[in-house]
Amino acid sequence: MSLIKEMTKGFFKENPVFVMALGLCPALAVSSSIENAIGMGGAATFVLLCSNILISLLKNLIPSKIRIPCYIVVIASFVTIVDMTMNAYLFELHKNLGIFIPLIVVNCVILGRAEAFAGRNNVVKSIFDGIGMGIGFTLALVAVAFFRELLGAGQLLGVNVMPANYQPILIAILAPGAFLTLGLLLGLMNLLKKPEAD
User: Fold this and answer.
1) From the CB of residue 188, how many other CB atoms can be counted at a distance below 10 Å?
2) From CA 12, how far away is CA 18, in angstroms rounded?
3) In 3D, which of 146, 136, 113, 179 has the Cα closest to residue 10?
4) Could you tell me the residue range of the domain that residue 144 belongs to?
5) CA-based nearest residue to 35, from 76, 86, 80, 77
6) How many structural domains comprise the chain?
7) pTM for the whole thing?
8) Residue 140 falls in which region: left (phi positive, over 0), alpha (psi -120 to 50) or beta
9) Residue 145 forms part of a structural domain
10) Which pLDDT score, from 0 to 100, does residue 109 have?
11) In whole angstroms, what is the distance from residue 198 CA to residue 190 CA?
12) Which residues pair with 88 in a beta bridge?
């Protein structure tokens, strides 16, 4: 598989949220606005990329019996870097994302890629996998946030885009709206997937 295919598989074919149904907690919780979705996606992409690189470099040095705890320590280190950096330079976004930044440590997307990919492949492939899966995760968060912010607030990135007489659908930015939006987008993705050969 070429490196470009390795990277782009995370966009659609193996999208972490819409195809593999991983990382649904942040997809539901922080997708009330596009700004939050981009912030969480960027943080997760950084952690995914850096942890993929380090785990791929150390894979032959980590004993198989303790590989998961080692992976978690590596991931937690990069999450701490993201958390402290966002707190220092992007305080409002950090405050909006709240507990979901530290919870990146146990995000199934990141731990799953460490176990299934970075622990079995070279650094170059792991870099492209990390970038692709991170972008795919971010795109999924932004897609959910786009519809929730548009319908629930009549805005996109804080700018009013709906007519002046538009009555926001409040449920769209509340928790039930997250489930409904994600469910509809998952259904749409299933319709768009090519039928598999029998």
Assistant:
1) 12
2) 8
3) 136
4) 9-188
5) 86
6) 1
7) 0.86
8) alpha
9) yes
10) 84
11) 17
12) none
User: What tokens were used for 63?
Assistant: 């004993």
Q: Where are the alpha helices (DSSP H) in the chain?
A: 3-8, 24-29, 34-58, 67-89, 91-97, 108-113, 123-153, 175-192
| Rounded Cα–Cα distance for residues 125 and 4 (Å) | 10
Report the candidate in 147, 148, 146, 151 with the shortest Cα–Cα distance to residue 168: 151
The 3-class SS string of 10-32 reads CCCCCCCCCCCCCCHHHHHHCCC
Q: Give the HSE-up count for residue 21: Cα atoms under 13 Å, Cβ half-sphere.
A: 6
Let me know if residue 70 belongs to a domain.
yes
**Tokens at residue 164, please?**
């002046």
Report yes or no on 134 lying in a domain: yes
Residue 65's identity, in one-letter code, is: K
- Can you tell me the mean pLDDT for 151-180? 85
Is residue 105 situated within a structural domain?
A: yes
Judge whether 4 and 154 are in contact, CB under 8 Å: no
Tens digits of residue pLDDT in 103-150: 888 888 888 888 888 888 889 989 998 899 999 999 999 999 999 888
